[in-house]
Amino acid sequence: MPENQYTFDNPVDRYPAISPDEEQVPEPGLESDLSPRADLGEDSYVGTGRLTGRKAIVTGGDSGIGAAAAIAFAREGADVAIVYLPEEEEDAQRVAGLIRDAGRTAVTIPGDLKERAFSDEIVKRTLDELGGIDILVNNAGKQIAAESLTDIPDDQFDHTMKTNVYAMFWLTRAALPHLPAGATIINTTSIQAYQPGEQLVDYATTKAAINAFTKALAQQLAPKGIRVNAVAPGPIWTPLQVSKGQPAEAIPEFGQQTPLGRPGQPAELAPAYVFLASPESSYVIGETLSVTGGMPTP
Ligand code: NAD
Ligand code: MG
């Protein structure tokens, strides 16, 4: 394990190889469902003031990639509102504690992003409790593997679209009137947008949509000084994967197909979100930053 994100080492074995058991838990998964546990940067991410005074919303900020981003944002000086499902209160409270340990304000907003009205509530609570919004990370996601298209019921298709695409649209639209010049929007897409897996037809479709949404909106908002970008993770060790995101039999070899030969840890995604959130990326607009362990993207 690296001491911090700047530790110079060999990325091949920066983290120990993992060979988890075949396992599958109900959604949404919790961090405690992961064995071995994932690294969210709790003991390693060091901030250098890159987001001092900023106010961020991170959906899915309770666990996985969103939690790693939320922790990093706080250590870089941002106040952070995290959005998550009510069943994830335990993970959310842990991340909120880490945000507060960094000396920043944490707002916890449980609810269901599949409901349009919840996006308005997220914006209202963030404005009331943080006094503004200048970073919006649309990161919550739903992924359920299905062997055949005929195994995808209407509600799975609908919930995957609502969570991954509609919620991004609703929350971005609700936040937009409040975003000042200099604000940034970061959407979590996936390697699945480019290399869609045969068992993830619905999910991969949403991830391609997220890329198109990002690139279209980026052009629209750039003249207003609001930058829109995306991050495309490769296989990352998170609760999403063990809560039906993969078939159980795929879990033991998860991530071994990458050129690095291992899955990524959420902590390895955090610097990408910090970079895109920070003014240091001022000329980076409509970009998808791939963090895939070497899996090629266009
Ligand atoms: P995760 O399970 O830790 O995070 C997903 C989060 O989405 C959950 O914690 C939950 O809070 C939130 N969420 C889901 N449905 C919701 C709903 N209806 N209302 C409110 N919140 C809801 O897993 P993760 O892998 O960190 O996922 C984060 C993002 O990364 C997702 O968009 C996912 O598609 C994307 N991604 C993950 C991987 C990977 O390999 N883990 C790869 C590429 C992209
Ligand atoms: Mg979670």
UniProtKB/TrEMBL annotation:
The keyword Transmembrane does not apply. Residues 1-43 are annotated as: Disordered. SUPFAM superfamilies: NAD(P)-binding Rossmann-fold domains. Pfam families: adh_short_C2. Coiled coil: none annotated. Keywords: Oxidoreductase. GO terms for molecular function: oxidoreductase activity, acting on CH-OH group of donors. The keyword Oxidoreductase applies. PROSITE patterns: ADH_SHORT (PS00061). InterPro entries: NAD(P)-bd_dom_sf, Sc_DH/Rdtase_CS, SDR_fam. Belongs to the short-chain dehydrogenases/reductases (SDR) family. PANTHER family: NADPH-DEPENDENT ALDEHYDE REDUCTASE 1, CHLOROPLASTIC, NADPH-DEPENDENT ALDEHYDE REDUCTASE-LIKE PROTEIN, CHLOROPLASTIC-RELATED. This is SDR family oxidoreductase. It comes from Leifsonia soli.
